[in-house]
Amino acid sequence: MAKTIKEINEKIEKGEAVVVTAEEIIDIAEEKGIEKAAKEVDVVTTATFGPMCSSGAYFNIGHAKPKIKLGGGRAYLNDVPVYTGFAAVDVYIGATALADDDPRNKVFPGEFKYGGGHVIEDLVAGKNLRLVATAYGTDCYPRKRLETLINIKDLNEAVLFNPRNVYQNYNVAVNLLDKIIYTYMGVLKPKLGNANYCSAGQLSPLLNDPYYKTIGIGTRIFLGGGVGYVVWQGTQHNPTVKRKDNGVPQAPAGTLAVLGDLKGMKPEWLVGTTMQGYGVTLTVGIGIPIPILNEEICRYTAVKDEEIWAQIVDYSEAYPQGKPGSLGEVNYAQLKSGEITIQGKKVPTGNLSSYPKAVEIANTLKEWIKQGDFLLSEPVAYLPGPETGYTFKPLKERPLE
Amino acid sequence: MISKRIVLHFPHRLVDQPIVCNLVKDYELEFNILKAYVTPREEGLLVLELSGEDKNYEQGIQYLREAGVKVQPLSQDIIRNEERCTHCGVCVPICPTGALVVEPLTRKVNFYDNKCIACELCVKACPVRAMEVHF
Predict the structure, then answer these.
(1) Around B4, how many Cα atoms within 13 Å sit in the side-chain half-sphere?
(2) Contacts B102 to A, Cβ<8 Å
(3) Cβ A272–B92 below 8 Å, yes or no?
(4) Based on the domain organization, do A234 and A281 belong to the same domain?
(5) Same structural domain, A307 and A269
(6) Of A194, A338, A352, the CB nearest to B102
(7) What pLDDT shows up at residue A1?
(8) Phi and psi of B48, rounded to 5°?
(9) Looking at CA atoms only, how far is residue A88 from chain B in angstroms?
(10) For testing the chain A interface, which of B81, B84, B90 should be mutated: the one with the most A CBs within 10 Å?
(11) Cα–Cα distances in Å, from A332 out to B5, B19, B84, B101?
């Protein structure tokens, strides 16, 4: 019997909803079968906690006296540049931004000790940040320079707005060269010295809703320890990649753009992150509830690590040169065993995405829902699925002449 | 028999003295140098695995202390900041001695400081900078 989100919300409000994590539903479905599990369970909570570079925050700092127009000028928070191409006192800081005088990779591999991701973590932690801004001055905004401490509690709006998070599956990164390489997938030791992956696998939101049947625009989520929303498909959304019979993509596929009130978030779930020799980013904690509307959706959420497959990609040559091809396919149960076999060689694995933290998020969201504090929202529109033909296109370079 | 990983801090006046060789000559101790350097303030730092008979080991350590060398266990110097660690596990294949291991059931990363040789490879590979060196 099919359920509606409205019916599930009524149960949540009465404290009667049955809520389990995407890990727990696996055993329930195995013991009781999909039909019974779909009847009994109302919500499955999914989660992920990994580095997500397309993240950032915008805020309004309020007007100084006399007024200054940051738009068209320059502004820095703790020396990290923020984007000022908006109105007078709105700025956006991106997770990968670096101070102008950061040595970057001049001494290789660069250390990247502090950048946009760390500024966001410090802001959410309630620390004072140094704002330094210069502007050209106008009749209505005469001031040309501003230096002040700012604090999140004094900002008018502070909003986390991430254009691409929650990748549906990801590559397993390896290095075929005979020298160490430093990538956004971590340090890769020479000649298949390690294999790094980045997904919560069976707990990951879009791997539990492979065709975006419940997660859509307007879905209310756990974002950085507070409440947020899915606002669009993420950039590079690519639903048309190859899928297994269970519908799960075998390569990086769907993505989400998410937004939420930064003032309600916690630094524990928005962590400034450094990838040696690569740059800075932000590790973001996201939890998404999936309403068990019918047996089909229940079956999707019961997906296990051994049923989710990822491609092994060489990051010394194939990835940087944009050459297609995979060195093989492995599942997340194999990856989580700590060792996989590539070209006959046993290779130790490392995860960039924290599974224990994802479990913690899924359990936190479960408690919020069980206590009636968090109601599910009905998507106002759905994300482009494989049937739409929507794809992630490479850049076509053209001469300027 | 006893075998311990220790950190020796040599004051400036001892940096050019042959001290460690006396541990072999006079106390019949074996050592394996894990790390050695002289700081910009010209103090010496030596990380050793030191093994031998219990009594000889104690006397050897006593000799070092009397000579003016500061001795402390290695486990006090490489520390995991538990608040920062997210237990992602990307450090696990980087560690050459198996001091960082994923616990299969919880998938949390255990740090066995008795296995750590202070190579510091994990320090920069850790995305949230949870591994700290306090030499």
Answers:
(1) 16
(2) 338
(3) no
(4) yes
(5) yes
(6) A338
(7) 65
(8) -125, 150
(9) 34
(10) B90
(11) 37, 52, 25, 18
pLDDT in tens, chain A (401 residues): 689 999 999 999 999 999 999 999 999 999 999 999 999 999 999 999 999 999 999 999 999 999 999 999 999 999 999 999 999 999 999 999 999 999 999 999 999 999 999 999 999 999 999 999 999 999 999 999 999 999 999 999 999 999 999 999 999 999 999 999 999 999 999 999 999 999 999 999 999 999 999 999 999 999 999 999 999 999 999 999 999 999 999 999 999 999 999 999 999 999 999 999 999 999 999 999 999 999 999 999 999 999 999 999 999 999 999 999 999 999 999 999 999 999 999 999 999 999 999 999 999 999 999 999 999 999 999 999 999 999 999 999 999 98
The total domain count for chain A is 2
Q: Are residues A134 and A273 in the same domain?
A: no
Cβ contacts of A338 on chain B, cutoff 8 Å:
92, 102
Residues of chain A contacting residue B106, judged by C-beta atoms under 8 Å apart: 356
Does one domain contain both A135 and A187?
Answer: no
* A333 near B CB under 8 A: no
Q: What is the ipTM of this complex?
A: 0.94
A183 touches B: beta carbon within 8 Å: no
Residue A352 contacts B where some CB pair is shorter than 8 Å: yes
Report how many Cβ contacts below 8 Å link chain A to chain B: 70
Cα A141 from Cα A133, distance rounded (Å): 13
Clarify whether A140 is annotated catalytic. yes
Task: Give yes or no for A372 touching B (CB within 8 A).
Answer: no
Q: Print the domain residue range for A296.
A: 5-53+164-388
Cβ proximity of B11 and B46 under 8 Å: no
A196 touching B (Cβ < 8 Å): yes
Structure tokens, A264: 């309600």
Range B87-111 burial, b when 16+ CB lie within 10 A, else e? bbbbbbbbbeeebbbbeeeebbbeb
On whether both A120 and A178 belong to a single domain, the answer is: no
Last residue within a domain, chosen from A126, A160, A194: A160
Regarding whether A350 and A362 lie in a shared domain, the answer is: yes
Domains and CATH numbers, chain B: 2-76 (3.30.70.260), 79-135 (3.30.70.20)
Rounded-to-integer distance, Cα A350 and Cα A362, Å: 22
Cis ω on the peptide bond leading into residue A109 (within 30° of 0)?
Answer: yes
Say whether both A48 and A60 belong to one domain.
Answer: no
Q: Does A273 touch chain B (CB under 8 A)?
A: yes
Q: What is the DSSP string of A236-287?
A: T--TTS-B-TTS-BSSS---EEEEEEGGG--GGGEEEEEETTTEEEEEEEEE
Spatial distance between the Cα atoms of A73 and A133, rounded to a whole number of angstroms: 7
Is residue A305 domain-shared with residue A372, that is, in the same domain?
yes
Final residue in a domain of this structure, among A110, A135, A160: A160
